[in-house]
Amino acid sequence: MDRSRGDAGRRPRKRGQGELESQVLEVLSSAPEPVTAGWVQQRLGGGLAYTTVMTILSRLLAKQAVSRSRSGRVYLWLAASDAAGLAALRMRRMLDTESDRDAVLASFVSALLPEDERRLRALLDGSTEEREH
After folding, report:
1. Over 60: is that where the pLDDT of 106 sits?
2. Do residues 44 and 6 touch, judged by C-beta distance below 8 A?
3. Could you tell me whether strands 66-71 and 74-79 are parallel, antiparallel, or unpaired per DSSP bridges?
4. How much is the pLDDT for 57?
């Protein structure tokens, strides 16, 4: 291996699927209107291939985290959710794969930091109050 090239010969760090999805959602959330995959690709930088961007957008579409509409020969993409919404969707899907939902939820709650547990309780209390009205 030729180490004389320094960092110039290094390949960019490979990003994980979840990281790319979050970055694409962030870009779409900042868009002033529905945008093309090419627009997303330009904003992401880092030399991502157009096909990679299309794959991520398609995966997000399947997860209902984005929507698309046709404009002539291209699709225009729009965020249907932000990164927090995507994380919540992932959590919900994981929960849906387990047969003992009570055990999974109990384990999740018992592993929360005290501050996160207080936040969750406050959110649940607010949600219960809204349903009662």
Report:
1. yes
2. no
3. antiparallel
4. 96
